[in-house]
Amino acid sequence: MAFNDMERNSKEEVEVNKIMEKFGKYQKLQYLYSCLPAVFITMNFINYVFVAGDLNYRCRIPECDEQVAVYKPTWWPNVTIDRCQKPALKEQTSQQCTNGSFSGTFEECTQWVYETNDTVIAALNLACQPWKSNLIGTIHNIGMLFSMVLSGWLSDRFGRKPTLIFCSVGSCIGHLKAFTTSYYIYVAIEMVEALVGGGSYSAAMILMLEIGGKKSRILSGVLFAYAIYLGETLFALIAMYVPYWKSLIRIIYTPPIFVFVLLFFIEESPRWQILNGQADKAKRTLVHISDFNGVNINRQKLVDMDEEGLRKEFKMENYEHKESYSDVFKSREIMKRVVISAFCKFTVGFVYYGLMVNSVYLPGNKYTNFMLASVMSYPGELVAMYSMNKVGRKLPLICGYITCGLLCAGSAWVPEDYTWLKIVLFLFGKLVISVCYTGVVTYTMELFPTSVRGSLLGICSLASSIGSMLAPLTPILNTISVVLPSMFFCGAAILSGALLTLTPETKDLPLMDTIEQVNIITQQDKKRRKGNNLKGENNYGFDKSVMT
Length: 548
Known about the structure:
The protein is 60% helix and 3% strand. The chain contains 23 helices and 4 strands. The strands form 2 sheets. Strands 1-4 form a two-stranded antiparallel ribbon. Strands 2-3 form a two-stranded antiparallel sheet. It is found in: Membrane.
């Protein structure tokens, strides 16, 4: 015991508000616990890609088909027939149908024979109703829209930890889809599942950001992104070997049930605890972090701090009431950041998933293509982590958005004869938008103060969901011009890059905790630009003493 005390005293004492700056064992474990649900939830969120995937089918001919019909009978006409039309029979002269039993005319089809029953298309009899099958994914994304706003409020009101656990476990409601035979009940469950489970993403990302230091913010975003990509890849692998939709649903919706176990391992964000009057819990969490990471602090000083003392230590003394949307609307700086961040999140959702949707036009197996589209994102995270840690947040994002826009435009206008060049530009566009995806997630969280971070991140995530909801509709534009989808991607990306020039750099800066802090540093920056040089300035031009 004496040796441990001597060892602790030999270390340089760290201020209480710097406890979380050291990236140690505590952060590694908490990041693992926070990312684990994301792997499972991602498989749930993209289930409709294969569960509601299209099937081959043909019209059923009652006069010819047996009770258990086959998809490719020997008597089927030797002509290409629209699968929504029924070939008319000649006046029957025998009981046995042959290729010559058909008149060459067609009738409206009312019954179908499916090649397999691997997807809900067969189970819910959705043949020749593409709007219904496509609506499943759209309904899911609508649920995600509302989830992002609701979960942001839940995260700020009740905490990051309970929101993460509740939303993750709640997504298991998707199990009920395997028992329904009604299309409308199916899409209702799909929406409720997205509405409940969608909050796990934002809660986990906020928690990871707030328990780390300045140097680990980008790392937290990269790790969380890899958890999502891992979920996408695993889902494609599972679907490849378990194509039957009911079995697939049971496999992917079971793991989140066990996320409740993390209730005993995940710790709440100390920043949230301090802001919400839980000083004793915050002190216990901070002591636990310091012990786990071997950080030497003045324990007695921390123990003796009351709620007001803790807020002063973390520069939250101006936080006298719970800040809400009304306070956001009163701050022009916050509103500017919300609008720009929301549009940038919309763009990454729109372009990222738009490119994934259009990747299905590449030749090859659909499962393999989906995996390749996911794998293309992996190197993008490494680029994001390196560039945003070495250069900063703004410049890599600005260059990334503009470069992605140019690559999308280039891919659209390259002649069809240069297939290899179109594919190369497409893949590089996917790579660059992956860099922006991770970067903008971390950057937007750094732009917002702790008091309303969850709520504002929810608004930005809502914008991202709108983009991902519109992305599957872009192939419709091909009927007008094949270059239109890519030009829409180009325009959104370049506009996002231009808007980011209006936001501040946040690299190596402490996290803001209140809207008041944002207003103060904004005023200081205006004075600096007028020529009033302040002592203790950093690269943003404000006094660090107003923040943690």
